[in-house]
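TICKET: design request
STATUS: open
ATTACHED STRUCTURE:
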């Protein structure tokens, strides 16, 4: 895999992870909500106007473009497993930013993911 291909994959993964974190920050700002016929428009507007959610959606759009560029250079059987790096990034960032717990069992699972990504990258 070339350096450019790896950079595109990593950029796509990081943008996707950033999108998840921004969406979580946005839902934290909006608070718990239920969709129903009566509140669909008000809740939809609150979500659509929340800056974190708008930024998260923008990250998704950019990540899609970057990911398509990556897939034009790398086999999908190699590129797709690399998305798992996002699990690691999001677990650490969620712990740091949102105070979410990373238990020993979760950390072990993340370790297995890292090993798996390494093996796929080396194949």
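STATUS: resolved
RESOLUTION: sequence designed for all positions
ATTACHED SEQUENCE:
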């Amino acid at each position: 895999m070339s350096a450019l291909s790896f950079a595109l994959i990593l950029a796509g993964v990081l943008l996707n992870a950033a999108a998840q974190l921004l969406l979580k920050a946005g839902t934290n700002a909006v608070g718990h909500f239920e969709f129903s016929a009566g509140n669909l428009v008000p809740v939809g507007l609150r979500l659509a106007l929340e800056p974190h959610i708008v930024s998260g959606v923008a990250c998704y759009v950019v990540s899609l473009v970057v990911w398509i560029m990556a897939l034009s250079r790398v086999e999908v059987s190699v590129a797709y497993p690399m998305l798992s790096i996002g699990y690691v990034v999001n677990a650490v960032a969620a712990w740091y930013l949102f105070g979410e717990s990373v238990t020993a069992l979760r950390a072990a699972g993340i370790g297995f993911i890292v090993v798996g990504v390494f093996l796929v990258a080396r194949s």
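CLOSING REMARK: The chain has six helices and no strands. Residues 11 and 54 are 19 Å apart (CA to CA).
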